[in-house]
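Hi R.,

Here's the chain you asked about this morning:
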Amino acid sequence: MRRRITLPLLTAGAILASLFVAVSPAHAHGWVVSPPSRQDMCAKGRVANCGDIVWEPQSVEAPKGSMQCNGGGSRFAVLNDESKGWPATSVGNSVTFQWRLTARHRTGTWEYFVGSTRIAVFHDNGAQPPENVSHNVSLGGRTGRIKVLARWNVYDTAMAFYACVDLQVGPGGPGPSPTPTASPTRPPTASPTPTSQPGGTWQANRAYAVGDTVTYNGLSYRCIQAHTSLPGWEPPNTPALWQRI
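And the predicted structure, written out as tokens:
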């Protein structure tokens, strides 16, 4: 009698386990959060109708060597769509790119491109990176609207992770210069857009533009690089983003 009961229980358990594996999402990896990448814009509702990338901004993984925003893979082709009206973040000629890693793969290199030109490379030589990785990159005197392709090359596999970041460098530039502002199609739950905050208190999960001023612990700071704030990015902790005044 005991064997007749145990076998069905084991079988049912195996079925449930297999179903759990089938529906569990793939392991997460990483993406550029500041200045916000295209997948970050989608995930935060600042660009609408992005498809599955809304839930998987960290999963833009494809073989190494691609120059496409989705890595040339079979998923997330929306990231290559230049007609989406991607907002461009206003920056100076030196930009700090911030990656958020949800799986810290051993790393070969981090690369940054404008068009077909590699403008920066950082070598990790197989080291495991921390959860948050920052690189300060010179844009080489470029002005106007540009698109930077960031590529994270995993050390011990043939794969890389990709992120495109739209920037408005300096005050001018050819063609229209979109900025992170509300659009008619943006969902009601979208993140706030950059607004001047003279004398306001610093807040996490808020978009700040260059020149915005805030107070924190009784001290005043001015934003020197546009970004969306995160817990842990308080002004005293992020001199690349805030300047005390």
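Helices lie at 2-23, 38-43.

Let me know if you need anything else.
M.
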